[in-house]
């Protein structure tokens, strides 16, 4: 495992470490990396298993009963949801149920599912968690020699005696977790473990991907891409009005319902121009961590509204630190730009419709551009290499379009222009880039990075520099190719544009068909060139964002830029 | 992996019926009186099941959840007379 030198990272000293929740101790024993991610970095993600666990826990979480003030009294103890903590042990815990008589009590922990077929009927991590409860009760003056795990699925109560071996195992786990938390090295992922398959943090941890990129040669299992997420909701009709109706969002145009979607099926909301949203609808989005992004009428990305944000501070610290490191900035920028040029080259090769003579020399010169980018000695010369390649690419862009005479100029393209775009193709390109920026801003904020601090693009007020950085290799793959598809399939026609004072923009209808084409592209599954599993572009953006986190945290030596063949 | 479900219910009390009706809008598409069509991941299915279990009166009400199979590959064999029946699709909302 490659781990960066953690010298200058902020470290928690022993005294600063807060007591460990016994629940987290369970995770740590299950997988040290999981414990670290959950407790030290504050990451959490629901999976079907955690949701089910929550449902099965509902009864015990309601509380009720209390522990006696003076453990000496002879009375029946039956208390639910008992919170205890101890500085000496360095542990806190919320015990599902404590029962007993006088000062002899036993903790009971509820687990969803059935009693497992292992020796003693209880898995190790659960034993340690229960034993930590036992130690906490002892600290508070009770006598406690065993506990129970209650399996809700099979309605069985399995006793766990707190013998010497278990107690010393628990103490050792506490000690070790404190040590891991005090250092700032994230424990390495488990090696091809079956535990990962149903782990809810698998998408954050990326065990197989990180392992594959840092040392072993086994192909990663497609665990992460199979996680289901919702789909975006676009409201680009200027009279669009989104309101909350119970469990769904309803979109109205002129008081008439035109669409509705359950909150649980929506991953993000994009609002264009004067389209509006009620406060209750927005509150529910914030509560469910559904980002809402705002565009100008013409598709200019203006910003996004997101809940209280990501809790993982370590990630952002690593990002800022790397952004001040010139070497790291240059290394990452070179890779991203080289990736972009290579992907542009691939797109040209695949979609070339121009004359057969022009292509070979174009391919050669673009390969030269890739080489120049990879070897660029500074950001300035990298900008030069990028500019040269972009000029070449856009000069030949029309070679990928079908030539249909549509009158009114059709889709005549003579190079890139913007702010404002002056012809239909440029209008489409600008709009597609704005959409892709939004996707990246959402993906980056979602994994705990700051989209406004980049490595290649310099930070400037209101410019999501990191999103622009990360988007480079995806410009040809997602945005340009959507533009080509929309034009070549006739999904967007010359009549779908309005021209005012030299500027050209999409009409409402044209924008709707183009967004549909863009979403189709995002849903397209591609085979990942490194990991070999199939994944949609939508999920791929998140994988790339997570891999960037792993690179910035020093777990990966280099950032693997996505390139298609 | 998402699965396709048909949820049908008989609720005796109008107040509870309204509550179930509203909840179901969060999980599926209204098909007919007291019948919904849903496309759910395991997580969303569990949430729906738990909510319904909480709302209904176990003695008098009845909720049926019919599993039609994997939503992406299954072609439900449904005979629909009158208005057409179309399985819910997974598509982004664009207005």
Describe, in plain words, how this protein is organized in 3D.
- The complex is a heterodimer of chains A (565) and B (95).
- Chain A is of the alpha/beta class and 565 residues long.
- Chain A has helices spanning 22-30, 32-40, 48-61, 124-139, 164-182, 202-205, 207-214, 279-287, 313-323, 326-351, 358-375, 379-395, 424-446, 465-471, 474-488, 508-523, 537-552; strands at residues 20-21, 76-86, 91-101, 104-111, 146-151, 156-161, 231-235, 240-245, 248-253, 256-262, 266-272, 276-277, 292-295, 301-305, 497-500, 503-506, 525-527, 534-536.
- In chain A, helix 13 (424-446) packs across helix 17 (537-552).
- The longest helix of chain A has 26 residues, at 326-351.
- Chain A starts with 19 loop residues before the first strand and ends in a 13-residue tail after the last helix.
- Chain B has 95 residues and is of the alpha+beta class.
- Chain B is 27% helix and 32% strand.
- Chain B has helices spanning 14-25, 42-55, and strands at residues 3-10, 28-32, 35-40, 62-70, 93-94.
- The longest helix of chain B has 14 residues, at 42-55.
- The model of chain B has no long low-confidence stretch (mean pLDDT 86).
- The chains are: A alpha/beta (565), B alpha+beta (95).
- The interface between A and B is medium-sized, with 34 and 21 residues.
TL;DR?
The complex is a heterodimer of chains A (565) and B (95). By secondary structure, chain A is of the alpha/beta class.
Question: Which keywords apply here?
Answer:
heterodimer, A: 565 residues, four-stranded mixed β-sheet, 17 helices, 18 strands, 18% strand, elongated, disordered N terminus, B: alpha+beta, 32% strand
Q: Of all protein chain pairs, which has the greatest interface, and how many residues does each chain bring to it?
A: A-B, 34 and 21 residues
Low-pLDDT residue intervals, each spanning 5 or more residues of chain A: 1-12
Oligomer: heterodimer
Shape of chain A: elongated
Q: Which geometry of chain B do the CA atoms define?
A: globular
The proportion of residues forming helix of chain B, as a percent range, comes to 25-40%
Distance between the termini of chain A: 29 Å
The sequence of SSEs of chain B as H and E is EHEEHEE
Main beta sheet of chain A: strand number and arrangement?
Answer: 6 strands, mixed
Taken as a percent bin, the fraction of beta residues of chain B is 25-35%
**Rg of Cα set of chain A:** 28 Å
Number of helices of chain B: 2
